[in-house]
């Protein structure tokens, strides 16, 4: 491992990212380096873009450096910081951000801190790059070792357990219907009703005085005048008036 | 046979409250607009056919 060279000789943590809000926590860059507060000149030496500041725990450091290099065409690796990942998404541009919180959302999912991963599966993206469970206990690791052998040796329960390690839900579970539409429609109705209250407020505080031409008396006289002139006598207003009985036609 | 779910699904927010939210929202909407449309003096200028009685105007 190449030695670190601090730019200013102190052991305070620096981030060399140009993204001002990408300041991340301290990065241990050597496996043997247990202290905090190590800056990231190794990132610059490796030639990475300084906007991808790594947030890695100790054992993922080298993997993280390797992955970040190829991260531009992979889904977002969880070793990238949230800010770096977001700027990457914006640069790529093509990824739709709509529905990111809904079951039908985009495949790359949200950037999350450990122990959560970037796992998001849907019918059109059924096999994400990362397994659902990445932190395995001893029993699960033993099972993964057994998986490397012949699969005929696995019992049914073990196969199911392996499936559940790799995937969060089965297709049936993933594609199940939900009652979300009820909540959505309820909120739609609520806000529509709230709009009615806004209009009430408008009527009280904004509307001007009703013009004289819209008063009932004026409208009644206007109606008589139109009927006297026989306005629209074929299919319109005057055709609906019965002049003999002086009332509206039934 | 159709595929089956392999885990018991605990009810989520929409299962528990979806009906109540949609019913209350609809009630609020209907009540609010019924009041707004009729009681606060909005002019809808509906057609006089079948509703309004004409009134003499020539002497004004």
From TrEMBL, chain A:
InterPro entries for this protein: Cyt_c_oxidase_su4, Cyt_c_oxidase_su4_fam, Cyt_c_oxidase_su4_sf
Transmembrane segments: 183-201
Membrane topology: Single-pass membrane protein
Localisation per UniProt entry: Mitochondrion inner membrane
Similarity field: Belongs to the cytochrome c oxidase IV family.
Function (record text): Component of the cytochrome c oxidase, the last enzyme in the mitochondrial electron transport chain which drives oxidative phosphorylation.
Record protein name field: Cytochrome c oxidase subunit 4
UniProtKB/TrEMBL annotation, chain B:
Pfam families per UniProt: COX7B
Main location: mitochondrion
Pathway of action: Energy metabolism; oxidative phosphorylation
GO terms of biological process kind: mitochondrial electron transport, cytochrome c to oxygen
SUPFAM superfamilies xref list: Mitochondrial cytochrome c oxidase subunit VIIb
Keyword Mitochondrion part of the UniProt annotation: yes
Subcellular location: Mitochondrion inner membrane
PANTHER family: CYTOCHROME C OXIDASE SUBUNIT 7B, MITOCHONDRIAL
Name used for this protein in its record: Cytochrome c oxidase subunit 7B, mitochondrial
Species of origin: Phocoena sinus (Vaquita)
Source taxonomy: Eukaryota, Metazoa, Chordata, Craniata, Vertebrata
